[in-house]
Sequence to fold (145 residues):
Amino acid sequence: MPLLLLVTMAAKAQRNSAAETVKAKKEDVKVNAKKPKVLFGTASYYADKFNGRPTASGENYDGKKATAACNVLPLGTWIRVTNLQNKRSVVVRVNDRLHPKMTRIVDLSRSSAERLGYTGLGLTDVKVEVMGVKKPKENDVAVYK
Fold:
């Protein structure tokens, strides 16, 4: 076979397997009150230029609210995000999506990123715990250290 054909076939197979991986992740994430789903990955935060722009849920982004963008969880899902560097946590609601090629697990609002203490770094490793679609009670919201 010509080399170009082999390279093209390999690239196509790689794209297909990547798409299957993302699909498997979305299917694996189910909101279950009995056994919360836990995800690990990298978090970033929204730039100020996005203030006032519409999100995937239809509401406008506000950097002062506790919200997040995530590609693997349904819109409206409440999650607890814990910074693995300093153990600070914040509870936020998923109201937006990331770019489809984004490898980060979550993109937080500026106020949430400030509470987690990583705005100076831009990125941090996090644990994401799925809390469900109902707004958590006040005692379920983490205390900031």
